[in-house]
Known about the structure:
Layout: H1 2-7, H2 11-145, H3 149-165
Amino acid sequence: MLYQQLVSFDKWTFIAQILNLFIQIWLFKRFLFQPVKKIIAKRQEELNKVYSDAEAAREGAENARLDYEEQLKNAKQDAEALSERTLASARLSAGEIIQNAQSQAQSMKEKAAKEIEADRKKVMDQARGEISDMAVGIAEKLVRKELKTEGQDALIDQFINEFEAE
């Protein structure tokens, strides 16, 4: 019989156990599950915040990378433009130097031509002076021989024309 009492069904004990179960569920829910839910919710918020901060940092890094690439591209363009300007300036300077050299060479040619012309005139003047002296000498010789004046002029003109031809 003793065994039967262990297996027997007592209505009030059953009700007390059911009430005890509901009270335990309510207590667990009130004092255990709600604080645990709050802790889980708080951790979820922190996790979401960390994810959002990480996403914002990633976007910031992406924007910084894009800005860097844009600046690098601009720097390359600026360097190319500077190189082109420098090359154009160098070409212009080279052209000016060549033009100056050509103008100096031209002025030197002109100066040399003027000097040559002046030297030629000087030589011609000296030659004419010498010719005049020679002509006077010839005239003296002719006067000594007592030639006519008409013959002297013709002789002097002929002598000067022959000397200029040479």
